[in-house]
Amino acid sequence: MHKLSSTDTLFLLNESRETPMHVGGVHLFTLPEGADEIEFLSDLGELLHDDAALSFPFGQRLRESRLPSCPPIRWEEDPKLDMEYHVRHSALPRPGRYRELFALVSRLHSTLLDRSRPLWEFNLIEGLQNRQFATYSKVHHAAIDGAMGMHLANSMYSSDPDSRAEHSPFSVRSFKRYQHKLAELHADANDETPTADEISSVNYMVSEALGSAVNVGKAIGQSLEAYLKDGKLRMPFSEVPHTPFNQRLSGARRFVAQSWSFDRVYAVGKALDGTLNDTVLAMSAGALRKYLKTHAELPTVSLKAMAPMSLRPAGDVTSSNAVAAITVDLATNVADAELRYRTIQESMREGRQLLQQLTRREIDFYTMIMQAPAIMVGLMGVEHKLPAYSTVISNVPGPRKQMYWNGASLNGMYPASAINHGTGLNITMVSNNKSLDFGIVACLDSMPLVQRLIDYLEDALVELEELAGIRPQQRRGRSEQPA
Amino acid sequence: MHKLSSTDTLFLLNESRETPMHVGGVHLFTLPEGADEIEFLSDLGELLHDDAALSFPFGQRLRESRLPSCPPIRWEEDPKLDMEYHVRHSALPRPGRYRELFALVSRLHSTLLDRSRPLWEFNLIEGLQNRQFATYSKVHHAAIDGAMGMHLANSMYSSDPDSRAEHSPFSVRSFKRYQHKLAELHADANDETPTADEISSVNYMVSEALGSAVNVGKAIGQSLEAYLKDGKLRMPFSEVPHTPFNQRLSGARRFVAQSWSFDRVYAVGKALDGTLNDTVLAMSAGALRKYLKTHAELPTVSLKAMAPMSLRPAGDVTSSNAVAAITVDLATNVADAELRYRTIQESMREGRQLLQQLTRREIDFYTMIMQAPAIMVGLMGVEHKLPAYSTVISNVPGPRKQMYWNGASLNGMYPASAINHGTGLNITMVSNNKSLDFGIVACLDSMPLVQRLIDYLEDALVELEELAGIRPQQRRGRSEQPA
Lengths: 483, 483
Prior knowledge:
Two copies of one chain form a homodimer. By secondary structure, chain A is α+β, with helices and mostly antiparallel strands. The first copy, chain A, has helices at 6-13, 37-48, 83-86, 98-109, 146-156, 172-190, 216-227, 262-271, 276-295, 337-357, 360-380, 452-467; strands spanning 22-30, 60-63, 74-77, 87-91, 120-126, 132-140, 253-261, 304-310, 323-329, 391-397, 404-405, 408-416, 425-432, 435-443.
């Protein structure tokens, strides 16, 4: 029987109609040649409805505490699991563009999961143009973290277009089979560039390993020392300027997504002697600077991003707990693109260096202390007055090859994260085959024009390419992908 | 500036993820001959998106109280009204049967409205078979009651197939125009049978007229006297047996709907010397008896229904406050159909007689006292242990003619109400032209087979027809309508 960690419980306590705490994403596919859409989706639907021996968290619900007004501390098997409820078939109104897809996903991402059941929903979405279809999934953050979410996604797909799934992707059998495959996959991956280290930032930083037994008071004391080792280090809550997206949230979300060529972004980092992560942070910083200049007022103080950071050694793909958060200075108040890039790079380097000096145990404490104030402030209901960060920017490693789901080619994996009062913008990207798939979640009220960020991200990448002395023949990214 | 009554506030306080407090419904249409679906729906969409001078509650949001942890007491204009958020375009997956429609509506009806905006959503739904399309609307119960909801629906439609809407149905102009029309409409209606009185039960019984100034303690004392005038009167909470649908609810709803011929139901009442309302209560009682016998255990104690009851004089169509609730003995433990009918009839008669003896002021108190315990029990979180009623069965008068929306003929008006812990089933019907349109809302977990009620309602009607000595050539109802 699974237990909830104290962090899991905080995700439950911190949830409201205005701040649903689920994470998920949109995956985009092209039907195999000659396949009939209705038949193909109905076959997938049948597979997904199988309720035999599901892996965690798909068959487990929260077990109510026997003490009144105590939060749940365990998961239990759902005795009346109803796959019809969890697996849904949706459709887009015509003309079935990405615009209609994002409108639907924005709505689906805005509603709370039902706490009396396993905390997930999965949508098969038909009605897209050009023989494409999509899925949208959401799972409660108390049940899953970003790394685990990516494992689950990967376990559904195969690099072999002729491979056909025999079991539900939610089944224990499927997940065990995937675990066996992981070692081989990783061996392959090691031969390729970039290294796992370069794309190893992952979202959802508070590790389950902390467990419920951690004495928070003691941890704060121990961590404070580590925290103060480097006075230049950016800390949460310090110098986070007010922007339209650092307010109290309404209950409505806006989701937008777009893919960029992995090679384009990687080339910038290589030319500027930075990492892929430095470059996506700089892209985001450039885009946010332009957004604020155009649609609001650019703060004189620079924006600070929370960048979840993987600390796992190069060979380790099984542990999911080696994760910490770095506060990055986005230098949005700096007009010069090079100076902005260097400031971001330096800020990341400082954060990483601090973490490297710490023992694993200290890192666990450090991670918690970085998160604890945000959660405390959240529980007090004043997080919109005291934002911990301007935004979260997260980079999740995904598959390095073209992947297929029952023969349908995977065109994009766009993450959709949770946002919170005070930090109402999340930019998460997944490296998927030859692209970087960006998924952006914002509050509809504080960032009604969030779709502009897509254009501004491209503008920022072009600016970086010019800075790096790269002159691509075609500047616009994979324009066949969502805008 | 609109104020919230204490009842409105209770609907807000009593709301949770498991018990959303909105009401709404599905309206079904056939496209005008020769009309192009995309063009037609896009024209409607344009009309609906107009945000100029909206009538209450479409442009008003809750104004937060200045005192912390106090509920809102006023509505205010939403300064950043976003019609794009409220008016939604949805689609059904193929093959676009009523089954897919009800699955979508069940999901839409299960999610909470966003409290930071005007408390309504409106969906245009495409993708139905046979040139049909649908709308699904939801409005918070704190903002609207059933009678008002029906007025709003009626204000959208015209009995003239050539009439075209010039203003948004949510606009002040549209609603004013409708108010002018009402008197004429009523004059027509008076010439027809049945009388308004016979179909005058309406849902949502707690009137806004009570206001927030009512001293609840005093009212309880004053009402108790009236309450005890007739010892035989059925009272809430007394002898409500345990059934699968009288439990704590999960956050998922199941919605089903079906139309019956108005004449068929009316003929039974006429032959048995009962009202239309007696007959729909008997239909529901017969159906519930069969459901419990087949899928659960039939309680030896009879089920009790809450029947909202209009008290308005025959000529009055403008006041919306003359509404009270009667507790009806459904006699589900009685095998004999005639005895069951007579018990229901007698129970309704007693309830009505009591109300007729009371002054208007006493009726207001009586209504509140009938509701107050349910709401109190709800706030204490024990309503599933102490259900006030087995179910709510409500009969809402709708249009007497074939209506059209911009030339599209209205085929059905299926209400979708709110349910609560302990009373997890609502059967509401609207008289619409020549049919009675039933909409049933249940909790997915406690009544997963609620769609069987549709068949059982037909069986119960056939039983009543046999009892009444009516032998129709074709016994099945309007089978072209939803099942």
